[in-house]
Amino acid sequence: MRYIGTSVPIHDAMGKACGKTLYAADMTLPGMLHLALLTSRVPHGTVQSVCAKRALELPGVVDVLHCFNTTKRLFNRYRNIYGQELIDQEQVFPARLRFAGDRVACVIAETAKAAREALPLIDVEIEELPYATDAKTVLESGVLDSLHPDGAVYPIREMINGEPPDTAGAVFTTTDCRIERVSHVTMEPQACVASYSRDTGELTVWSPNQSVHGLRTVLAELFELPYNKLRVVKTTMGGSFGSKQEWMAEPVAAAAALHTGRPVKIAFTREQAMLSSITRCAVDSTLTTAATKDGKILSIELDATVDAGGYLSNSRDYCVVLSSKLFRFYSFPYAKYTGRAVCTNSPVSGAFRGWGSPELFLILEHNFNTLARKLDIDPTELRLLNVAAPGSHDKRTGQPLGEIRGGECIRLGREKFDWYAKRDACKTFNAQNGRYRRGVAVGCGGHGNGYFPRREDFSSMEMRMAEDGSVIANMTLHDHGCGSVTAMKMIIAESLEIPIEKITLGEGDTAATPFDVGCFASRTTYVLGCMALGCALKLKAHLVECAAEVLGVQPDLLKAKNGGIVLAAGGETLLSFADVAVKAIRKLQREVCVTHRHINASNPGVTGAHFAHVEVDTQTGMVRVLDYLAVHDIGRVINREITIAQVQGAVAMGTGAALTESMRPDKNGRFTASLKDYHLRNCPELPHVAVEFIEAGSIQGPYGAKSIGELANVPVAPAIVGAVNDALGSSLNEVPLNPEKIVRTWAHYLAAR
Questions:
Q1: What are the beta bridge partners of residue 463?
Q2: 438 burial class (0-12, 13-18, 19+ CB within 10 angstroms)?
Q3: Confidence of residue 647 (pLDDT cuts 50, 70, 90)
Q4: 3 state SS for 497-565
Q5: What is the pLDDT of residues 28-44, one digit of tens each?
Q6: Cβ neighbours, 10 Å, residue 455
Q7: Contact between 710 and 632 (Cβ < 8 Å)
Q8: pLDDT for 528-561, tens place per residue?
Q9: d(CA 567, CA 560)
Q10: pTM for the whole thing?
């Protein structure tokens, strides 16, 4: 391979390194106004009045928008396609505030400084209402029964797969798990620029979003605009992890642009990015497994409660999807799942890297570690007994998992990690030390490649050959900053056998690029990559057809090779691709151009097994990760160094979620809103992360490639949590395992000895 499997810098690496790449917050348009957002300080209340008189007297302030002078139409921030069955609960500025951070008003001003200074001058009278910031309180008290017209609790349909087995003599293990709310903490907070022309009736929105066509749908329906009068352009994105899949800043900017007829810009503060966008949901679960005495799992029964926050958004889907990932790594004869999404007076829950898989596998792996300890079975052997085999099917969907290689991930990881020696070394260390304890664990997980068969999953592309032999490709991409544009270029360059520098490829723009549902569900490499490959091969074939017509020969006598046309039997280049493009225009009177549509009809499994070695200071509760290995089955690597970096970044993210990151309410119902109080794991606190890829088994993806971006986050927290529990001989089940919890647990252990 000339490009596939090598390492190529991402398309905008130079601009980012030099500080020249423009993000939405950097944009400036002639006559542009600036927005500052006022958010609720109370977790639940009704806006009685808004007086903007003092704010409007401040020089530079143009206007103030709020619930009494903007549209009352409802929307759902999660909608990404027309007709999606969702409950619309949200308004641009609601009269009923449902969490601390909900949108109250925005100032429109000539400068950002004037907009910010005017915020405290807005007088808002709010009638405070009883509130609850956790799902348990809502379920037990009924305090939020009137939070929305249909209440606050949204149960899902019970899901059963398989027939209940004979569990006589089985070993039953029940574990509870509490996973706290976390923030995405992207380097780039939400930002947006909107411009409305009263002359043409056209609204243009620039934002770092994950679905230009989805955002167009939401804004068009919300503001009753024709689709052809609304253009959405995807800007350079400084990270998302799901936080820019949903729409919080864009409705405000659109409302202000429509109101003033001038360009406007909004950029969230870090506090607003944490409170007023979306977070990963909090989850409470109970899992019961029945297993034979040798470790073969006969059945699992899982019940989960998802905390949706102030608005339902995607949480009912999120609750359902926990069950849809049950068979992406393991195979069980019987599974039963019950669940519910519960609205609370908390920041709104939304998409987060892995879309339910990290939470589900943390729940599963904690139970399996408890079971392994109960049965005195090595944790890796327990998993190998229950792993899905290559060629098996997903029992929830009935679809083939392909050449899924979770077992191979465990075996290779066990060898590379020196698993048995490390386990023995930990036992020796712990026997000789008092304050410090060491442990190891394996964490496993699986994910998917696109939406199929759950919903529509297709994309389209056009590709043309310019007169100099360069290629202009047009598709709807949404690069999160991790190299999706470059990956597509590598696939095209490999297929056409031309230098990658000859390919031009942009990102999503509803006025210019074909329809696509967006970049989520780990569909970019697998679905759009297949489309790019198919389109490139179609262009290659079309070049042969045009060359044959120009040369007056049959197409089967020619073939495309190394950027030119040669005789199929071999020989020198007859025409370069540039020659074909020029002659097609001048002699055939047409452009060398093709279109291609790819409809995804498969969803193979992607798997990972992570191995963690930790040291716990029992006096301070601090955890040091000594060694880490991540093994992934991803079919074929496209861009090697970028793929490795994806895994290493996921380990940093998952380690933080396992040990330190959480958003909690204070006594006034206001959640963590500052990085001073939200504890990320920084680079000096992270170990070297060794990465291994199993590149075999997939033939359906482009050059055999499957997904990695979301999968890489799935096994991390299970591995870290498992290793801490192994070190302490504990069953800590409230994540994150912060120092306070660890010290308290160890104190109880010492008191019980």
A1: 473, 594
A2: buried
A3: very high
A4: CCCHHHEEECCCECCCCCCECCCCCCCHHHHHHHHHHHHHHHHHHHHHHHHHHHHCCCHHHEEEECCEE
A5: 999 999 999 999 999 99
A6: 11
A7: no
A8: 999 999 999 999 999 999 999 999 999 999 999 9
A9: 9
A10: 0.96
